[in-house]
What does this fold into?
Amino acid sequence: MSAGQTTAGAPPAAEDELLAHFEALVASGETVEPRDWMPDGYRRMLLRQIAQHAHSEIIGMQPEGAWLTRAPSLHRKSVLIAKVQDEAGHGLYLYSAAETLGADRADLLDALHRGQQRFAATFNHPALTWADTGAIAWLTDGAAVINQAPLCRTSYGPYARAMRRVCQEEAFHVRQGYDLMRALCEGTPEQRRMAQDAVDRWWLPAVALMFGPPDTEAGGADARTAALGAAVSRRAIAWGIKHHTNDELRQRFVDQCVPQAERLGLTLPDPAIRWNEERGHYDFTPVDWETYRDALGDDTHWARQRVAHRRAAHEDGAWVREAAAAYAAREDAGVPPAGTGAAGIAADRTEAAA
Amino acid sequence: MSRGREGAPASWEVFVRPRRGLAHQHVGSVRADDADTALGRARDLYVRRGDPLSLWVVRSDSVHAVSPDERDPYFSTARHKPYRYPEQFAPLTQEGPDGDHDQ
It folds into this structure.
């Protein structure tokens, strides 16, 4: 079978056949690869999700990055640098995956900078104390792992491979965050208070925002929101992009966190949390999505701040990109760059090329 | 040559040899204007952990490829040729349901 890359101009009969082939591939649990034919809707849904995910990774560097110079010990500082560096890496894995779908990385960054593409609103919260870096890693990275573990089996090959790398590193993020919280909880009463305060502020953003809007009525959404979310989730599940509803993953997260918080002696700020013998899960207060969306729209101070900071970093780095391009252009032209060491290397290259 | 598309640095495929005895494996891609920068970025991005033995970068547009779904007949030499497999032939010993053929 010859499957072209594009649907443009394909006669309807051929497209039916391509679609059947695509659906059989997904149904059999095989991955879809960049050169395979795929429906436009599939490509668009993937691009939207991967771009949102990539943007979240690099914006997510900001709240914790703010504490790099104020870490309480050299060890914690090294750990935090490694973690923030990983987040940059995750963004790059994902931008690479997006590029296999025909997107241009510069366009994606541009869309982020113009506010045309979103990132997880979780990161619109500020990290007010050192304990926040622990709570972010334990709770929001913990939520990310639950979201992302099933994505290691997502139907699009490059995305699945990126997620496998991401998940291996996220495990370190969650563990070091939990360890940081444990150290505070075993410390002075003031340190314990600081840990509890951070959990009070980061619990809801993690539960509500890391999993997306409710997509079942059981998740507490009104019928309309639930139906809307369910339609999107159904499509994503049918295409093998997702494997679970948002609410299913949210429940899994709560079930995992409650005993972890108990071991630390911390209280999760939700009075409704209690074990439900019948369901075999912890009950918790349903997410009030409307309130959250309003409180954390693009117009909040921190949302604007995050994008402005990202844009400034990009613009301040322009001269580095220009210099790298100029250096490469000179090298291509065979002009030895200034400096003896570099000139030696360039001379070797010219000789080899001759 | 250094620019893949207008304004964007070229794409490079990254290969890592994770340890002795293994071939270089494709791990992903980076963007960079020249090979040295590509190697540096590949190191920062793909070998932050572990103890890899070596790293290759190859410009993405230098990779020539065929895929079975696109050019079926291209791979037809591998099909319908059961005689290329050892189990198609009489076993050398009588052990096991299919015999042992190459131990």
Notes: Strands of chain A lie at 274-276, 281-283. Chain A has two domains: 12-295, 322-353. Residues 320 and 326 of chain A are 10 Å apart (CA to CA). The interface with chain B takes residues 1-4, 33, 35-36, 82, 85-86, 89, 92-93, 96, 99, 104-106, 161-162, 165, 169, 321, 324-325, 327-329, 331-332 of chain A (CB under 8 Å).
